[in-house]
Amino acid sequence: MPKQPRPAEHVAIIMDGNGRWATQKGWPRLVGHRRGAERVKEIVRVAPDLGIRWLTVYAFSTENWKRSTEEVLGLMSIFARYIEREADRLAAEGVRMRFIGDRSRLDPKLQRLMSGIEERTRTFTRLNFTVAINYGGRDEMLRATRALAAEVAAGRLAPEAIDEAAISARLDTGDLPDPDLVIRTSGETRTSNFLLWQTAYAEYEFTPTLWPDFTPSELEQILARFGNRDRRFGGVVSA
Question: In the chain, how long is the greatest CA-to-CA distance?
Fold first, then answer.
């Protein structure tokens, strides 16, 4: 009997190459980011039909604050407009939207928009769409470690009770399954501090396609390749 392809139910994407895409065309980098946001809409729309139940995208890292003030402010404006303009469509299509990362540095208006759409869509299940903003894997683990240390210091948690489940529960993704597949666009082959704990056994795909050019068709091809991989999680395949 032929092997049945395995679905990638949780796909995480490092959306890289927006700025380069614009620069190659002689346009400002923010044009590339705006085009990238349009691509997000398209991928979110087709994801459920491709068997994806959880989609997590890397929108802004803790290191991205090093970019120019103009680019950072422009990105924050794009995030706010996306939430405002997509809220009705996401709700109508049964998409739950949530955010991971440290919100404390974000503009209060953006924080309110994020909280608002999370509350509005929290009961939807057709697709769980998570956006990482001001997110870094090391920062996330640092915050989780501090939370555990505080509980131990307060006498609410015994040190020997700290296991993998305890750590996972205190990460930003505590109520999400680990990714099955991570896709990075633009030809770079780094993880860039993205979901370091959660992707311990994820499969990776690196594509030279810049994010604004990443199509549903290419996503479908990557998912097909994933479905034929053997995921052994440290074990061996039985004869």
Answer: 59
